[in-house]
């Protein structure tokens, strides 16, 4: 039973990836259900302040302590501070040692324990072998038309630059029936689109908590697409290594799957990919991208690129540029290599690429990508595209996304919200389209 008089306010700040967004939604829902916390955007009225952290690159970690210091000065008398997420996993009790006003620390693999630690001063829950994969979280708040559902926890890869396996532990798949059940509930509440989330979604189904038969991501996609009322399926991140023909064919022919795919390249150089332990070559990546483009002509392909990985020569970097030229990504998330604790690439320190070279390479990738983006977006002008409208702006514009996930703005009213509507595209910028409703 919830007691209204005890209602407390929760302020939660989320950094990092979409899994952290889902984790934060679960934290908020759990604390609402079990501890009667309701959300606030005003830090000064919060009884509990949580920061859900990311440690994938060094900068956000450096910022963490100045940020929680700020929270400590702004918080009201008696309010608590909790640190959750990936930096919580890897720094653990050191966070409380360095910032004693922090009340508790909950690692990214221990989110299910939030309701138990919230009232325990000094609690540190960061076990890397904790298994949340069959824990029934309270229903996370979702946007009206979209929901995000985790399909696995952890990551079994050992990419040599990446801290995630050390903060989220081994990969365990969430049972398909739990995933389908959750999506059905969200659809009953108005969702028409789902984002399936995992660090490596297309290795889904290899290990479960119980001794059940293995399955595959392709089979999961087929199960999820049977859900009545669910119109659009998205997923992230898939790994290029596991993009087998079966998967690509399902992606191409399943009408519910959004035709926008993330193909995290990291580097175009086979030598660097080897040093990163990515498991594929430049040629494999190009072959997969080509097959996807052949089967899905309107596909949009997004990627992640790391420049200046230790030992990256000019020639290696030119391989990355060559792949960008050949694939023409619709969106690139660019990063300069950042050395992380608990990663194998730390041993390559003596091959560090000078920072100014890293910066130059980053700029080159950004500039080339901008050029491609403009060209790719321009091609849409004059086309008619189906848009799911989801957001009404105060200026009378309404926006949504096409099936291949371009953002489109039109003049319109709230009766379009939640509808799939044909739009004639009249204008393109580098990042969005404008159009008119086809009557
Ligand atoms: N599991 C996902 C992404 C995890 S992290 C995947 O494999 O696609 C998101 C991105 O951050 C990675 O794809 C990578 O490009 C980048 N990244 C990870 N570790 C990094 C590091 N040490 N330095 C710079 N970028 C990094
Ligand atoms: Fe990190 Fe690689 Fe796992 Fe992605 S697949 S989370 S980059 S180890
Ligand atoms: Fe960051 Fe952890 Fe996600 S390190 S990118 S929050 S998995």
TrEMBL record:
<dbReference type="InterPro" id="IPR007197">
    <property type="entry name" value="rSAM"/>
</dbReference>
<dbReference type="InterPro" id="IPR005839">
    <property type="entry name" value="Methylthiotransferase"/>
</dbReference>
<feature type="binding site">
    <location>
        <position position="86"/>
    </location>
    <ligand>
        <name>[4Fe-4S] cluster 1</name>
    </ligand>
</feature>
<keyword id="KW-0004">4Fe-4S</keyword>
<feature type="domain" description="Radical SAM core">
    <location>
        <begin position="141"/>
        <end position="375"/>
    </location>
</feature>
<feature type="domain" description="TRAM">
    <location>
        <begin position="378"/>
        <end position="439"/>
    </location>
</feature>
<feature type="binding site">
    <location>
        <position position="54"/>
    </location>
    <ligand>
        <name>[4Fe-4S] cluster 1</name>
    </ligand>
</feature>
<dbReference type="InterPro" id="IPR002792">
    <property type="entry name" value="TRAM_dom"/>
</dbReference>
<dbReference type="Pfam" id="PF01938">
    <property type="entry name" value="TRAM"/>
</dbReference>
<dbReference type="Pfam" id="PF00919">
    <property type="entry name" value="UPF0004"/>
</dbReference>
<feature type="binding site">
    <location>
        <position position="162"/>
    </location>
    <ligand>
        <name>[4Fe-4S] cluster 2</name>
    </ligand>
</feature>
<keyword id="KW-0479">Metal-binding</keyword>
<keyword id="KW-0949">S-adenosyl-L-methionine</keyword>
<keyword id="KW-0411">Iron-sulfur</keyword>
<dbReference type="InterPro" id="IPR023404">
    <property type="entry name" value="rSAM_horseshoe"/>
</dbReference>
<feature type="binding site">
    <location>
        <position position="17"/>
    </location>
    <ligand>
        <name>[4Fe-4S] cluster 1</name>
    </ligand>
</feature>
<keyword id="KW-0808">Transferase</keyword>
<comment type="subunit">
    <text>Monomer.</text>
</comment>
<dbReference type="InterPro" id="IPR058240">
    <property type="entry name" value="rSAM_sf"/>
</dbReference>
<feature type="binding site">
    <location>
        <position position="155"/>
    </location>
    <ligand>
        <name>[4Fe-4S] cluster 2</name>
    </ligand>
</feature>
<dbReference type="GO" id="GO:0035597">
    <property type="term" value="F:tRNA-2-methylthio-N(6)-dimethylallyladenosine(37) synthase activity"/>
</dbReference>
<dbReference type="InterPro" id="IPR038135">
    <property type="entry name" value="Methylthiotransferase_N_sf"/>
</dbReference>
<dbReference type="GO" id="GO:0005829">
    <property type="term" value="C:cytosol"/>
</dbReference>
<keyword id="KW-0408">Iron</keyword>
<dbReference type="InterPro" id="IPR006463">
    <property type="entry name" value="MiaB_methiolase"/>
</dbReference>
<keyword id="KW-0963">Cytoplasm</keyword>
<feature type="binding site">
    <location>
        <position position="159"/>
    </location>
    <ligand>
        <name>[4Fe-4S] cluster 2</name>
    </ligand>
</feature>
<dbReference type="InterPro" id="IPR006638">
    <property type="entry name" value="Elp3/MiaA/NifB-like_rSAM"/>
</dbReference>
<dbReference type="GO" id="GO:0051539">
    <property type="term" value="F:4 iron, 4 sulfur cluster binding"/>
</dbReference>
<dbReference type="Pfam" id="PF04055">
    <property type="entry name" value="Radical_SAM"/>
</dbReference>
<feature type="domain" description="MTTase N-terminal">
    <location>
        <begin position="8"/>
        <end position="123"/>
    </location>
</feature>
<dbReference type="InterPro" id="IPR020612">
    <property type="entry name" value="Methylthiotransferase_CS"/>
</dbReference>
<dbReference type="InterPro" id="IPR013848">
    <property type="entry name" value="Methylthiotransferase_N"/>
</dbReference>
<comment type="similarity">
    <text>Belongs to the methylthiotransferase family. MiaB subfamily.</text>
</comment>
<dbReference type="GO" id="GO:0046872">
    <property type="term" value="F:metal ion binding"/>
</dbReference>
<protein>
    <recommendedName>
        <fullName>tRNA-2-methylthio-N(6)-dimethylallyladenosine synthase</fullName>
        <ecNumber>2.8.4.3</ecNumber>
    </recommendedName>
</protein>
<comment type="function">
    <text>Catalyzes the methylthiolation of N6-(dimethylallyl)adenosine (i(6)A), leading to the formation of 2-methylthio-N6-(dimethylallyl)adenosine (ms(2)i(6)A) at position 37 in tRNAs that read codons beginning with uridine.</text>
</comment>
<keyword id="KW-0819">tRNA processing</keyword>
